Amino acid sequence: MLKDITCSSEINPEEFKRFKMKYNGWVDRINEELDRLIPENNSPQGSIYDAMRYSLMAGGKRLRPVLAIAVSEMLGGDIEKVLPFACAIEMIHTYSLIHDDLPCMDNDDYRRGKPTNHKVFGEAQALLAGDALLNRAFEVMAESISRVPENAVEGVNAMRVIAEASGTKGMIGGQVIDIKSEGKAIPGELLLYMHKCKTGALIKASVLSAAVICRADTETMKILEEFVECIGLAFQIKDDILDVEGNSKVMGKNTGSDAAKSKSTFVSVYGLNQSKKMLLELTDQAAGCISGFGEKAWFLKSLTKYLAIREM
Ligand code: GRG
Questions:
Q1: pTM beyond cutoff 0.90
Q2: CATH assignment of 13-309?
């Protein structure tokens, strides 16, 4: 939800109001669907549903599913066809956060404004809740493919895009580099590659899987790929800036953790001012990529600007 975010001077207040209303409307729809896909459960193993729902329904910006829906709308697609994939991506993202917070990884106590999953349910249940979210994500995508056979090829291709982005070539690969680099100063090139994998890949999959479902042509895919590579990187740079300058209450997680863990970040490698400059350049570049879509791209353009000024 974007309810707590104020408009900066760089966004026209009317445009921001329109953007916020649309964003929050989609978040409501995504939350309703996630609630339906992973309901409370009274079976003997029902406690695993409590652990999954605890993190999944704890809020979060829902950036990845919103991106998927926005791309679908811009391309004139059917949002209902994209929604199961958008929800699956949010499940995968939430699993990665639960596992990332575990003592064997980042050992964080606070996430999405609440104690982390393992602090409430214990390490074993948190590990299983993450695993279960990942499994459910693929079950949801497979269910959607069998329900809409006329779109089966696109559905399978979208699922492949999401699987690849979550695996060793994407998020898990990036996490491996991150762990191996802890306590070391890494070169800027490796830092870029790490984030392209760890954070950028799933954000990219949100945009490209939606485009695949909408049967986008090769030229459109190329434009969207360049667009999302810019916003993926901008997202991570902003994340590193917020870890230094952000307000932990607003963000719902502890700040300063990168420095405390001696992690290489854009701020530690390039400095705060240069990182801010890079963020603005990438924001402009991203908006430029989709300018050819004209008025149809208004929401994605506003979203791009919002990512640069976000406070959480
Ligand atoms: C454990 C398999 C595994 C992977 C972990 C993505 C990742 C790899 C860990 C997440 C840790 C982290 C804080 C990464 C930095 C960027 C990021 C993904 C921030 C969280 O995403 P937001 O800001 O979170 O979209 P919300 O809560 O709004 O959904």
A1: yes
A2: 1.10.600.10
